[in-house]
Amino acid sequence: MKPTKDDIDGLKLLQPELTTIGNRISGCFFLSACLENKTKGRGKKLACHSWNTERKKNPKHINKHFHINILLDESLYPSKVNETSEKLLSWKSDIPSEYWHINSDNTLCLSIESDIKLKQQNSKSFACFINELLTEYFYYMCYVKKFGNEPWEAYRHGLFAALDKASEGINESNSESIFNTLTSDIDIWGGKKKWNTLLNKMKCLGIKHNNNCPFCQRPTLVSRCNSHKKQIKGYNKILRYLSNQGSKQ
To answer: What burial class does residue 77 get, using C-beta atoms within 10 Å of its C-beta: 0-12 exposed, 13-18 middle, 19+ buried?
Structure first.
């Protein structure tokens, strides 16, 4: 399936520099958005403005542009998205690894597939779906680069994903996926290399309130860290689980 003329015309109204040819969308994507309300968890309320909106005085209003290339599948789902100007890649040293949402092949990790498909189903039009999906992604990355933290809680990769899952409890149904991630050799996503580094840093002991948080970029006491509570809890639960497993043998 290819985008219809109505799809293309609608997208042009929102993003006039994007061109649709067959099952590809490419060109310059303009970001103009502001975080209206920060809610708990993965909730968010972004106000999307027209591409030529002047910069607001609100410091959370972000105006940027990115050159992109999108490959659509037969259901008009963005199966592969690249930021062709490599502006995002140049930010890698400025963005903490847990907030870095670019895949190992340099495609953009917009979200998990089920969430994107749900957004696609609930969207009023193909144009709105593409515009809102990209706006949320680029706003998130720009916000993290600017403020050093995330505007809303996003999904994690590698080590952080395993620790997030472990924080909710470890049992027979999820232990395999948790430990497969921790023993992965894919260093870029914080697999075996980062787990071993973390163990050595904490000397295999649990992370206590008077320790510095091992996940913060700057020295921050665990008792004062609000950003990595799940990771700290998950780390301690993994150590207790391994200890219990060892005592059963």
So the answer is: middle
Which tokens go with 68? 């992109």
CB atoms within 10 A of CB 1: 10
CB 117 within 8 A of CB 157: no
Q: Take residue 13 and report the two structure tokens written for it.
A: 């109204």
What 128-131 contacts at long range (C-beta under 8 Å, 24+ apart), as own/partner pairs, is 128/10, 128/14, 130/11, 130/15, 130/25, 130/70, 130/78, 131/11, 131/14, 131/15, 131/48
Please say whether the beta carbons of 193 and 126 come within 8 A.
no
Identify the CA nearest to 78 among candidates 125, 134, 31, 28.
134
8 Å CB contact between 111 and 42? no
pLDDT band, very low/low/confident/very high, at 89 (cuts 50, 70, 90): very high
pTM as predicted? 0.76
pLDDT in tens, 39-70: 555 556 788 777 666 655 778 889 999 999 99
Coil vs helix vs strand at 58: coil
* Residue 122 burial (10 A CB sphere; 0-12, 13-18, 19+): exposed
pLDDT per residue as tens digits for the range 145-199: 998 888 888 887 778 888 988 999 998 888 888 888 887 755 544 556 778 888 8
pLDDT at residue 87, as a whole number: 94
With b for 16 or more beta-carbon neighbours within 10 A and e for fewer, the 188-217 pattern comes to ebbbbbbbeebeeebeeeebeeebebbbee
- For the record, the structure tokens of 227 come out as 């950003």
